[in-house]
Amino acid sequence: MKKFFIMLLMLLFVFSCGKEKQPEKVEAKETVQENLFKNIDVDKLSRRLEKKIEVNGMKVDSFEDLNSDGKVFYYSTINGNKNEIITINYENLTPTAIVGKVTGKDESNMETFRKLSLSVIMASDTKLTDEDAQIIYEELLNKLENATSSTVVTKNNLTYGIEVIFGTEDELIIYAK
């Protein structure tokens, strides 16, 4: 019996030594990149936009909910001017796009559009620098040269675009989605 017990211990020892220790499973923590506008709620994004627009010398009026064609938007005019607007498209309080629009293409409107475009780009991803935003804006303009729209997809997986809508009052639109 003693021999049996010793053999059993030796067998257990041999089998336990040969077994590699399994690494503990570490649950992957999903990190939300709050720098990207799609990962924060609409209220936080609206405050971020207000700050970026104010840094560029403009003022956002208070945001209001707007329903159109079954879609929900968070809408505001800029500088009290109905020809300068900023809109946050969202579903279930999660932003899906930021859209800025300036009506008219005179020199002052073009400067307003530039400032609004840089504000939209920088608010879409807080990790972007002023220089990054300027590069994206210039790339959009270069692609726009002989077209009415242009888009750029960046390494942050956001799509930026500019559209020109010709009409009785030309419209310039910048978006991030």
Automatic annotation (TrEMBL):
Signal peptide: 1-18
Keywords: Signal
Protein name (record): Lipoprotein
Source organism of this protein record: Sebaldella termitidis (strain ATCC 33386 / NCTC 11300)
